[in-house]
Amino acid sequence: MGVTKRHIHSMRANQIADLAKVLSNPARVAIIEYIGDCDGCLCQDISEKIRLSQPTTSQHLQVIKKTGILKSQFRGKAQYYSIDVRKWEQAQQLFQDFFDATKAKCI
Amino acid sequence: MGVTKRHIHSMRANQIADLAKVLSNPARVAIIEYIGDCDGCLCQDISEKIRLSQPTTSQHLQVIKKTGILKSQFRGKAQYYSIDVRKWEQAQQLFQDFFDATKAKCI
DNA sequence: CTATAATATCGCAATATTGCGATATTACAA
DNA sequence: TTGTAATATCGCAATATTGCGATATTATAG
User: Which ranges carry the HTH arsR-type domain (chains A, B) (predicted)?
Assistant: First the structure.
């Protein structure tokens, strides 16, 4: 039918898939890389840097933000995006546990 | 237009995205988890375990295999899938470097 | 060779994703 | 309030993904 059958899988499998989906687009990876560089980035600057239109960049930002990995705050008319390091570490841990657990079972 | 613009991003960003795409479906995560458990799994067994049809399961297996993470070998009429630990470690490293590098820049 | 069991591929329908232009919204300055 | 700069949202077309039934392929047993 064409819809991912989330309900038949474990919560853990869905969590990992959800996080991976955020990183499954090179534009979003590039955005995260760029935001890491500067402490607080403008959508406009990111858009220029990754060479995608402002609307497209904004949409990707929303997708990443939905996971909690990004936080933003208005200063003047501009919105400054930065990485929520705590969430970022949690995400890393989720992947790392998955990789480690799988590896351990193979040995 | 609806196509991911891979060419405008760095090779590294594309690599990470490609790998993440494999993990962006919970069925594929579940398959990897299950294959880790048994040393050499049949498509049939995996299909039953994750409760998706045999064709769907086989297709997911091909997608994962394309990255090199899975290897397979025929024994009798059956095909046994198992994880290529070396490739698995490389994949982990790729993610880990990305997470670490991003984190380092934030501090 | 023929039958059989296991897996892979094809073709399809439903849905999701990607990227953009046009437009709406937001927050401040004057 | 009005103008302005920055960001968010809408609506769309093109393409990609997901899952399945039907069927083809593959590898062995007899």
Answer: 8-103
